[in-house]
């Protein structure tokens, strides 16, 4: 759980890739010397998982919210499974291949922001 994945989907177009290291997997003394970045990391972090989290944003027109939630529910951990924590989760089948961290120079200028990860 040291690397973050990013899945973006719009209609039939999508991508799934490694989005970098989780800040919680990097010793704080190795973080960049940037007070605002430290504030942002601490703001999104929660014990015991740090900045490890998932977000799901769904945008649609004329969508049936109840049916969507019903179809999504089997994909989510139950309260019991969540309570069992990572020791149990490590035994679940993972259909996504292992991430590989692509090292890049984030201190370059080509018109975009690399964000937190």
**Main β sheet profile:** 2 strands, antiparallel
Based on Cα principal axes, name the global outline. globular
- Beta strand %: 5-15%
Tally of DSSP β-strands: 2
Radius of gyration: 17 Å
Quaternary assembly: single chain
- Domains, number: 1
Low-confidence stretches: none
Helix content: 10-25%
Strand order of the largest sheet: 1-2
Mean pLDDT: 83
Helix-strand category: alpha+beta
The number of helical segments is: 3
| Gap from first CA to last CA | 14 Å
| Run of helices and strands | EEHHH
Brief overview:
With 117 residues, the protein is an alpha+beta fold. It has helices spanning 35-44, 65-72, 79-89; strands spanning 3-10, 13-21.
Describe the structure.
It is a single chain. By secondary structure, this protein is an alpha+beta fold. It is built from three helices and two strands. A two-stranded antiparallel sheet has the order 1-2. The longest helix is centred in the last third of the chain and has 11 residues, at 79-89. It starts with a strand and ends in a 28-residue tail after the last helix.
């Amino acid at each position: 759980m040291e690397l973050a994945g990013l899945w973006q989907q719009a209609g039939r177009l999508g991508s799934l890739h490694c989005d970098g290291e989780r800040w919680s997997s990097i010793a704080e003394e190795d973080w960049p010397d940037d007070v605002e970045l430290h504030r942002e990391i601490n703001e999104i972090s929660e014990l015991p998982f740090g900045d490890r989290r998932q977000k799901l944003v769904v945008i649609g027109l004329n969508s049936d919210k109840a049916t969507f939630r019903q179809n999504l529910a089997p994909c989510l951990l139950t309260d019991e499974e969540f309570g069992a924590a990572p020791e149990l989760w490590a035994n679940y089948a993972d259909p996504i291949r292992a991430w590989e961290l692509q090292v890049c120079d984030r201190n370059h200028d080509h018109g975009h922001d690399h964000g937190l990860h």
